[in-house]
Amino acid sequence: MYQFDAAITAWINTWAGHASTIDSVMIGVSTAGVPLLVLAVVAQWWVPRADPAIRHVLIAAGLSFLIGLGINQLILLFVQRVRPYEAHVTHLIIDRTVDFSFPSDHATASFAIAAAFLVHGLSRRGFWFLAAALLIGLSRVYLGTHYASDILGGAATGFLAAGLVRLAYRENTRLDRLVTGIL
User: Which InterPro entries does this UniProt record tie to the protein (predicted)?
Assistant: First the structure.
């Protein structure tokens, strides 16, 4: 399995460093992608006619984001996978990072947001967020900082977090009405 993962990762990364325009786009997506997704979620809070059901999903997306990243920290206690550039699978075209590779925090964060919208039935918005999450994940492999399986692991963690939030944070509870009524 590792050879297949390394081969896919190396193939995606092969293109890095050969086209400065694509490199710049991928660096931009990797750098600004997650903050822009968070901004897109937060901005919806003040959209006219943002009813409590939409606000419930926005809170769920934020909780999924945070819980997903928390789950990643637990995983990192047990799985300490070196980055693909350290294993000489990829060549890195951005600055090195100091943490471990699996799972990808970028993928977890972006897929958690997308999954929150999807599991709460806002599929149109969810698919836009999912497309953005896929692009962010691809950019991380392209840049040489993650294996393809790191992105899949992050996606799984993001969907798990959204599922947990869906089970635990119910719409129209007293807490939900309080939180969705803020501002």
Answer: PAP2/HPO, PAP2/HPO_sf
Q: Across all residues in the chain, what is the average pLDDT?
A: 92
pLDDT of residue 49: 64
Helix, strand, or coil (residue 155): helix
The ranges of the chain with pLDDT < 70 are 49-50, 183
Q: What is the CATH number of the domain that holds 102?
A: 1.20.144.10
Residues 117 and 41: their CA atoms lie apart, in Å, by 10
Alpha helix segments (H runs only) across 14-51: 20-43
The upper half-sphere exposure of residue 177, i.e. CA atoms within 13 Å in the direction of its Cβ, equals 3
Nearest to 111 by CA among 83, 87, 84, 138: 138
Domain that holds residue 29: 2-180
H or E segment at 182? none
Do 149 and 107 meet the contact criterion of CB atoms below 8 Å apart?
A: no
Q: Note the pLDDT of residue 116.
A: 97
DSSP output for 74-96 = HHHHH--PPPTTTTTSS---S--
**Overall number of domains in the chain:** 1
